[in-house]
Amino acid sequence: MNPFVKDADDRMDKSVEAFRSEISKIRTGKATTALLDGIRVDYYGTMSPVNQVGNVSVLDAHTLSITPWDKGMVNLIEKAILKSELGLNPANDGTNIRIPIPALNEERRKELVKLVKKFAEEAKIACRNVRRDANEHLKKQEKDKDISEDIRHDLEIEVQKIMDIHSKKIDEITKHKEAEILEV
User: Fold this and answer.
1) Contact in structure between 50 and 39 (CB atoms under 8 Å)
2) Where exactly are the structural domains of the chain?
């Protein structure tokens, strides 16, 4: 496999994974530990993810629980969750933090679906940029007489097939997340 084609495949994989990671943080009305992935807490001078300062677990479909390893972190974690734009209201009992996940109303669900579609389009744009870069490298190789026109054409078709595969993955992930959000 041509190194530029392999590189394009790897970069498109990274774009899809970045998209998957980004939408995993979007609330669906169900409790999931991924909701808290973007929240950082000042842990003795170091900004650390919540899951590195305590045990994050799902109690039931609508409740998350955080048990900090250091009991002094309870208030800091609670404040970090309140500052986040997730719209969550944590409650602590001195040692644990419980986070009820409120049900989403119809209007909010539609906003979240639009957000998912926006992230999907950004991921597709990233993949198209990777395709463009790969094709430019292939044209440069042809110009430098490293490959023939036929080989360049075949490799461009291969890059397009890789692009189509990644585009389908993004569409499948989007469809699944939309169904998850719209599920009542």
Assistant:
1) yes
2) 3-24+105-182, 33-100
